[in-house]
Amino acid sequence: MTISIWRYSHLALAVSSFVFILLASVTGIILAFQPISEQLEPYHVENLNNISVAETITVFKATYPEIIDIKVDDNDFVIASVFTEEGDNLEGYFNPKTAQYLGEEIETSKFFQWVTSLHRSLFLKSVGRFFVGLCSFLLFLITITGTILILKRQRGIKKFFAKIVNENFNQYWHVVLGRLSLIPILIITATGVYLSFEKFNLLPETTTDHQIDFDAISETPKQSISEIAIFKNTKLSEVKTIEFPFSEDVEDYFTLTLKSKELVVNQITGDILSSIETPLVTIFTRLSLNLHTGKGSIIWALILAVATANILFFIYSGFAMTFARRKARLKNKYKKDEAEYIILVGSENGSTLTYANAFYKQLIAAGKKAFINQLNSYTNYPKAKHLIVMTATYGQGEATTNANKFIQRLNNEANHNELQFSVVGFGSLAYPDFCQFAFDVDLALQQKFKSLLPIFTINDKSVEAFNQWVQQWCEATNINVSIPEKALAIAPKQLKKLKVLSKTENNIDETFLITLKPKKHHQFTSGDLLAIYPKNDYRERLYSIGKVDGNIHLSVKLHENGIGSGFLHNLQNNTAFKARLVKNSAFHLPKKSKSVIMIANGTGIAPFLGMLSQNKNSETQLYLGLRTAASFNLYKNQIDDYIASKKLSKFHLALSRENEKQYVQDKLDENAQNIAQTLYSDGVIMICGSLAMYKSVLATLEDIVTKYNNKPLSYYQNKQQIKSDCY
Ligand SMILES: Cc1cc2nc3c(=O)[nH]c(=O)nc-3n(C[C@H](O)[C@H](O)[C@H](O)COP(=O)(O)O)c2cc1C
Fold first, then answer.
1. Do 159 and 114 reside in the same domain of the chain?
2. Hey, which residues does 456 pair with through a beta bridge?
3. Is residue 316 part of a domain?
4. Parallel, antiparallel, or unpaired: how do β-strands 253-258 and 66-72 relate?
5. Would you say 524 and 588 are in contact if contact means Cβ atoms under 8 Å apart?
6. Closest C-alpha among 718, 725, 601, 602 to residue 668
7. For the domain that residue 713 is a member of, what is the CATH number?
8. Ligand 1 centre from 68 Cα, in Å?
9. What atom in ligand 1 is closest to the CA of residue 397?
10. In ligand 1, which atom is closest to the CA atom of 347?
């Protein structure tokens, strides 16, 4: 079933019951402190597992002339009702080992009584009880639908507790806390429903009616209390109540109510006159009450308090997410039938919509008849000349909910007029199926229309990349639009403080190395990206990082007027600045592969310097393309160290401005057989550097594998044996 059905059910249930759930949660948190406050009273004197019923009855009988009953409550406090030598009735807590009176029974405070009443019935008696029970059931369903949403998001039960990418505060914590409080909330709600059933007498009736044959009661052999087997062998921890005989007549007996059964015991011989198992309904009711209220366990009461507090957060974050999704509503100036430019959007959390809306507004401002809608609304657009699709990817490279029917609708639509299309994919390199849905859309559109531009992918909502695409589109269409900076002002999140440890002088190519230390411990590894915000606004610059000794290593080429490289170049040692670490799992050193070939040109070497320092088992080769021998000085010491420590098995240097004028692809050609063999035996090739180098390297690799392995390069690409991070 599609994710949307579960999301709408989850939302509809939440909307219909949130006021009641809010009240029940707030009062529930307060009530969780009632058992805690009771448990902290000093009446818990002995370990009831170590005291037998015989011991307690004996010591009570020796101390008091008359005993009515002894009870053990949920807090393991012993409560008794006795008469003293002076004829006074003493009721309250007692020490079960010494029969010493400890104090009066705690009375529930007026405040807790008031809150309990609000929690149970909203002061509306039976009507209120009914609504509270119903809301408990709705919350149970919300938890189930929420669990299904998490299962869908995590792609199966096995990955239920797998790491979650923190893209959005509300979304991240809604899922993380949802997973943690799942079991307690299911228990709270299921027991809440059960207790409501009990209050409305909807459970099977239970009575314990002992059938005692009084004619058969014997007075011999007489046994003292300490000799009676059932008293000797039963620990106080098992006991709910001990009712004492009314008189010393043999017809009067002990009634011993245990957790699992109720026994009638002859007070003279110790014979068991009747025994009835506690009905399951009673056991479940007791269990439900304890689980629902936290009675008897401080730890469980605390868990309940935290889980219930989480419900309040779920209400807030759930609605915040819903409002964020609805915020960017689509408003159109022209009807679909008169528009020439159709923008269709696939967005789950609204950011792609922000970009698409900004583009739409600029087209309108430029006097173009544009129309914007969701991808799922695809239909025939009779006057359209251009179709622009902007879509995010979710799940396992899947469509967003407002785009999941697009491809089907496209294929089913009979009347297509001629138009040119462009696809912009929004995604994140932190996921294995980067922008996969955009690729699927592009392929589907190719079957119907002419492509204006090749598909363009945008990692992590990069404004910079989006503007690059806008520029390309403008050039291709001869339309002049530009997106105002403010329209895409999405504030960068999750910034971390980094300190500059060292920075080298620029080398002959105006390239320098900079080492940064995260102020706090952050998880990252070589191949991840560092996003910096040189102008303190939305504009971000991404750099591939190497991790050496826990620090971030970057290799940066200083560009004239380059805002990113200029910013890094101007940083002084020991100064701090804020940046974001972006996980790029598609470009991590493979853990399983025995042999890895790394190919870099220029500053693309940075992640490899980190990977080599982290390398433990792999056979590694590095192909590095630089301009001159002098360019290499910047990296020479590190490379020499890695060769000496056998972390780098083979090094190939291609210099493009020395006599031989070699590029990395020439070096690859020289070692073609070794490259082919590496891929053949499941080795991995990693490429980092300029896009131009990347294209040439792919062409060379294609030739090599076709010649030696009789396979196209796509065969190895599909097996994830070719990894790249090029710019
Ligand atoms: C649960 C989840 C799954 C995602 N899966 C993918 C994915 O498989 N491939 C990808 O490239 N991006 C994936 N992303 C990243 C989003 O596509 C990206 O953040 C996009 O910019 C979000 O756009 P939106 O705010 O319009 O929904 C995923 C994000 C989330 C939260």
1. yes
2. 424
3. yes
4. unpaired
5. no
6. 601
7. 3.40.50.80
8. 69
9. 8
10. 26
Q: Same domain, yes or no, for 441 and 540? A: no
Torsion of CA 608, 612, 615, 617, to 10 degrees: 100
ipTM (interface predicted TM): 0.98
Domain boundary among 472, 488, 504: 488
Question: Cα(437)–Cα(441) distance, rounded to whole angstroms?
Answer: 6
- Report the candidate in 591, 530, 604, 581 with the shortest Cα–Cα distance to residue 720: 591
Give the predicted TM-score (pTM) of the model.
Answer: 0.55
Tell me the residue length of the chain: 727
Nearest one of 665, 721, 22 to 314, comparing CA atoms: 22
Residues 351 and 419 in one domain: yes
Q: Ligand 1: which atom is nearest the Cα of residue 164?
A: 1
Question: How far away, in angstroms, is 471 Cα from ligand 1 center?
Answer: 24
Same domain assignment for residues 527 and 569:
yes
Q: Which of 287, 294, 309, 299 is nearest to 181 (CA)?
A: 309
Pocket test for ligand 1, best of 393, 442, 587 (most atoms within 8 A of CB): 393
Asked if residue 576 belongs to a domain, the reply is yes
321 Cα–ligand 1 center, Å: 15
pLDDT given at position 510: 95
Rounded to the nearest whole angstrom, what is the distance from the C-alpha of residue 58 to the centroid of ligand 1?
71
Instruction: State in Å: Cα 8 to ligand 1 middle.
Output: 20
Say if residue 575 is in the same domain as residue 693.
yes
Residue with tokens 């583009």: 359
Atom of ligand 1 nearest to the CA of 458: 21
The domain of 666 spans 496-726
Tell me, yes or no, whether 306 lies in a domain: yes
- Nearest-atom number in ligand 1 for the CA of 346 is 26
Instruction: Tell me how far the alpha carbon of residue 510 lies from the centroid of ligand 1, in angstroms.
Output: 36
Structural domain total, the chain: 3
- Asked whether residue 1 carries a pLDDT value surpassing 60, the answer given is no
Q: How far is the CA of 427 from the centre of ligand 1 (A)?
A: 5
Residues 318 and 332 reside in one and the same domain: no
DSSP string covering 199-229: HTT-SPP--------GGG----S---GGG-H
Ligand 1 pocket, Cβ-based, cut-off 6 angstroms? 153, 167, 347-353, 392-395, 397, 400, 426-428, 431, 433-436, 461
d(CA 578, CA 251): 84
Residue 425 CB partners (closer than 8 Å, separation 6+): 391, 392, 393, 435, 437, 438, 439, 442, 455, 456, 457, 458
Co-location of 574 and 713 in the same domain: yes
243-294 tens-digit pLDDT: 999 999 999 999 999 999 999 999 999 999 999 999 999 999 999 999 999 9
Across 17-21, 430-434, 572-576, 643-647, least confident range? 430-434
Nearest to 368 by CA among 389, 346, 349, 384: 384
In a domain, 648, yes or no: yes
**Final residue of a structural domain among 432, 466, 488:** 488
- In this structure, the answer to whether residues 315 and 344 fall within a common structural domain is no
Cβ–Cβ < 8 Å for 350, 329: no
